[in-house]
Amino acid sequence: MLPEMFKAYAVITGHEVTHANRQPIWKITTCKRAFGKAYSGYHVVVQHHQVPWAYPKYEHGARHAISPMLDVDGDCVYINVDTNKLSKGYPSAKNKLSDWGSKNIKHVEKWLRSQRCTIAVDGQELVTPLKPMPFANEPMMETGSLYCLQNESYKTCRKSIDFLDSFLKRVIRLNGRCVLEKKDFGMDCVFQSSVPITEHLKLFAEHCNLDYKYFGRTGSAPQTIFAAEWIIRHLEANGSCARAEAILNNSVANLLKEEDHVNRSICKRHYVAHKSDTLKPFAELDNETHRHIDVREDYRSMTAQRLASGKFRPSMQEMKPSGFVEPRAAVGSLKDRCNDIHNLTIKEQDAQDSFIAMVERRNQLILQLARNSDIASNEAFRLLKHEVEEEMKEAQRLWDAKHSNGICTSVTNAGKRVLETIGLSPSKKRRVGDA
């Protein structure tokens, strides 16, 4: 993506970034030189390294993005400007500061040019007027935007996620091909999805949303933690296996370090895909953090049925997720419905997939431990492995029973096709005595 990003930036701004040149756009920030240092109280001026937003709201600039009019080329740049005085001179609409538009931008530019500010570039003092910074983005605390409130960064990130959500759905509904228009990107850009638009994606576009508050480090850590703790708990119930438990705890510790997690408790409580009292127990292997939920359903007796609920036959080595399917009208409790993915809502299907992924991770860890001869010969581990294998056999039996008609039909049709290739289709079979 990097070459495309550099090209897009050059198309939008007219500046081609190379290893040998410097960013020509400079921005006055909220950061000030500390007391006791040279130019104490001056605002820090920095190069503005940001790709403009896809839909530039600030076509004429914005009050939080101001630049010195002087061409700057230095390492340490500071400017003496009174931002309160500056803000009071901006044209307003109904006595309120508004985004600069085509009607008042000339007045804004005239006001900024009238300012005379001392600017220090690597120790050399000069005087410069000001101008609106070109290609202004939404204000963010991290970029030092002037007049930026504490919560503006959250709002900006949320807006970007909302745009990404609408863009993804637009691509899906247009069957993978979308044109990004010239008025927004400087040229008509054709976006072609690199993956096929599946039924799963279509159902996502219809029923789901990307939500900023759910973005986080979900996935690998909770899966491994819950799976490892499930195995350890059942090993201890069978008499324990110290070597297996040490290997599992070490795997969890290494994963927490690699993904920069504070501890496993935070992962189990906060880095999971579903946090509601209804779906948190449903989406996870049973664990002690569920105790804070006053009333919860226990799904442990339904494991085999849930593994057999999808479109693909489960195995000890792999459990392929079904993806979303069109849900039927929900009738009965979640426990009554979880044996068939078609009887679950889209959100419940997602929770079911999370649970099955944890079971698959559990099985993977058991198979890895079984390669160790000392662990494989341990009685507690042998009992555990046998219990899990029997559970998987039951899941396969249930899946086979549910799909037996489909399997028989597929085999019959396959047989017919073989006969047809050799000229013996049912309609062409010769009867005994035919010449």
Q: How does this structure look, described?
A:
The chain is an alpha+beta fold and 435 residues long. It has three domains: 22-146, no CATH class; 154-213, no CATH class; 216-409, no CATH class. 44% of the residues lie in helices and 10% in strands. It has 16 helices and eleven strands. The protein has helices spanning 2-13, 83-88, 105-113, 152-173, 182-185, 199-207, 220-238, 242-258, 264-270, 279-283, 303-307, 334-337, 346-370, 373-376, 379-402, 404-421; strands at 26-32, 43-47, 66-68, 77-80, 92-93, 96-97, 117-121, 124-128, 130-132, 177-180, 189-192. The strands form four sheets. The protein has a five-stranded antiparallel beta sheet, with no helix packed on it. Strands 3-9 form a two-stranded antiparallel sheet. Helix 4 crosses helix 6 (199-207), helix 7 (220-238) packs across helix 13 (346-370) and helix 7 (220-238) packs across helix 15 (379-402). The protein is elongated and about 85 Å long. The relative contact order is 0.07. The model is unreliable at 425-435 (pLDDT under 50).
| Strand content bin | 5-15%
Outline the biggest β-sheet: 5 strands, antiparallel
Instruction: Please provide the count of β strands.
Output: 11
Distance between the first and last residues' Cα: 70 Å
**Run of helices and strands:** HEEEEHEEHEEEHEHEHHHHHHHHHHH
Level of helix content? Answer: 40-55%
* Overall residue-averaged pLDDT value: 84
Provide the number of structural domains.
3
User: Judging from the principal axes of the Cα atoms, what is the shape?
Assistant: elongated
Instruction: Give start-end ranges of low-pLDDT stretches.
Output: 425-435
Which secondary-structure class do the elements indicate?
A: alpha+beta
- Kindly provide the radius of gyration, computed on alpha-carbon positions and rounded to a whole number of angstroms: 31 Å
